[in-house]
Amino acid sequence: MRKLMILLLILFIVVITGCSHKAGTLTPEEKKVTVQQGGQLKYGSLNEPNTLNPLISNLLATAEVGKLVFSGLVVTGDKGEWVPDLAVDVPTTVNGGVAADGRTVTYRLRQGVTWHDGTPFTAADVKFTWQYIMNQKVNVVSRDGYDRISSIETPDKYTVVVKFREYYAPYLTLFGTILPKHKLENVGDLNKDPFNRAPIGTGPFKFREWQVAEALIFEANPAYYRGKPVLDSIVYKIVPEQSLLLTQLKTGELDVVSNIAFSNLEQVKTIDGIRTVIEPTMVWEHMDFNLDNVLFQDLRVRQAIAAAIDRQAIVANVLKGVAVPAYGDQSPLSWAYNPMQQPPTRDVNIARELLAQAGWTPGPDGIMTKENKKLAFALAIPNGNRQREQTAQKIVEQLKEVGIAVEVRPVDTQLFFSDILKNRQFEAAIYAWVAGVDPDNLNLWHSRKIPGRGNDGQNYSGWRNPEIDKLTELGTKTVDVTARKDIYFRIQDIIREDCPVVPLYFRGNIDAVKVTVANYQTNPTPAGNLWNAWQWGFTAAK
């Protein structure tokens, strides 16, 4: 999660949130469109991949183009749900793919799938991918989860049996990229092999050419198991400046640009022939309290602050409606989100009543006082993000109405994450997390994940709650999905009750797409929007 957070700060320093129509849902008009076969689509990106092997890079650009070349056993769909890819189905306890104790997961593989060079894909490739990831000489991004696998058996060419040392709840997040054994098993230095810049996969497009600092070109894979892609080719153009991206949109040189800066939204809306696609994501902005601070050790003060903050006003006035208010740590796109939870609304009277119960009374200047001390605190934020700065100022205004004085303190972004948060040198802080595809947030909430004293976690608030400790541990050990969902529902309730943080809103993503591009669907996960590029095409001329 930390790597994803840092990556997001580097690549998404602008705040972009909201939705135009439901992710992945085609309008009646779109369903009637006739799509022509063939054509070349130009996709604009601010960033160039550093490799085309997703297992050894955490760059979004690499993840994006990786979706063109490679396949996984299971992948996430347009609503964040798990769907089969190289596997025939998603293994669960219901269909017998997951053992009762959760420690054995069986994947049944598709038959007839081939690598781009024509070699058949088999279970041996899946086992090799695990061995590749666990090879200490390979600079993979993460071995989390894979290191809990004790063995992988391949009883036949199309069956993979994964055996874990202990139950690993987010088992479906593993094997999102499968590598070809026949191309890599005899390679000396896997980090430097030419494969990483000119790979073959089982995905819908074949790598053709890399024009450094300019573009990467991919051509349709006619043997793709879902059928040949609609497009003949995709050009992933590297355009390092947002202004140049917009210029090329205007001149028609680009067909799709993802991750448009929030500040450019209105400008993009004025470009003829371009539609904006604004979809929710799983990135949530929130305000943390440092619970070691005496002021915030009083639950009534935390609850008063939460009651005084108007999320809807922030979304409407700061983000111009392009956001989704957050009421917990799970995105509305997650299967663990509780749709029945009551959204908290701003209530100034309740906030003032809570402060009065805590012994705070209005001073001459309207700021609450207690024992000759004002109710005031500093709010740290990483600098360089205009929307976050405006959000912080809006919170200052809202809390002042109930007699709370807040001073916003912008901090250098690198210093903020490497020191201020890590060493918990703040009173309150606003920043963002990337919610994972799996709802496990033990690293954020468990008391042993409070940084310091030998602990390496991200419970920066310093939240200590015995029930949360038990629930977060239980959530990672519970095999039954329904029972596990109940656990995360309860965690969401406790977050609202105990207020270690104040969830503010879930960000979104702004894309600019030519009106002639058909079947463009975003994906709420951090893997980019090329996930269904095999379906993209251009509308037929009328």
UniProtKB/TrEMBL annotation:
PROSITE patterns: PROKAR_LIPOPROTEIN (PS51257). It comes from the Bacteria. Pfam families: SBP_bac_5. InterPro entries: Peptide/Ni-bd, SBP_5, SBP_5_dom. Residues 82-445 form the Solute-binding protein family domain. Keywords: Signal, Transport. Belongs to the bacterial solute-binding protein 5 family. This is Oligopeptide-binding protein AppA.
